[in-house]
Design goal:
The protein has 164 residues and is of the alpha+beta class. The chain contains 5 helices and 8 strands. Strand 3 and strand 4 form a beta hairpin. It has a domain of 111 residues: Gcn5-related N-acetyltransferase (GNAT) (Aminopeptidase, 3-Layer(aba) Sandwich).
Length: 164
């Protein structure tokens, strides 16, 4: 991973993130990407997460965004929610997703969070395996997103050891 740079995202990264996310969605039948209707936060992505008390990071390779992850505290005291973990297909299997996850875990620990939660599309089987390999437990049920892709998401949770 020496040819990759992970850095805090800026508001100018929205277009690069749109390319990354739409590419990941294209891997799944019926998973559509409509930036204007469903991803307006990409127009000021860093500000979006800063306003929530959170952060977003991107991974760059050869001048393009090839990975992302974001997080923000939740309404549940002591819990941080993970968002937007995407890795370009050609960059998978190199430890990039784990390196991105470490940024969120560090953010959570700095805030003495006791848990990290996330929601992931029921179609993203590789993502489910990744989260489970890293200690996340899938919780019962799913939630509809009521989006153009007719998506449902599974909830996951990771308890952080040593948290107060």
């Amino acid at each position: 991973m020496t040819d990759l740079t992970i850095r805090p995202a800026t508001d100018a990264d929205g277009d690069g993130l749109a390319v990354l996310i739409s590419g990941c969605f294209a891997e799944y039948e019926g998973c559509l990407f409509d930036r204007a209707a469903e991803f307006p936060e990409l127009d000021a992505i860093a500000t979006h997460f800063q306003d929530k008390g959170g952060a977003i990071w991107v991974a760059e390779h050869d001048g393009g965004i090839v990975g992302s992850i974001a997080c923000a505290p939740t309404e549940d005291a002591g819990t941080v929610e993970l968002f937007k973990l995407y890795v370009a297909r050609e960059m998978r299997g190199r430890g990039l997703a784990r390196a991105l996850l470490d940024h969120v875990l560090g953010f959570a620990r700095e805030r003495s969070a006791s848990a990290v939660r996330l929601f992931t599309d029921t179609r993203f089987l590789d993502a489910h395996r990744f989260y489970e390999r890293h200690g996340f437990q899938r919780l019962p049920g799913s939630r509809p997103l009521n989006d153009i892709s007719n998506s449902f998401e599974y909830p996951y949770r990771l308890s952080l050891p040593g948290a107060r």
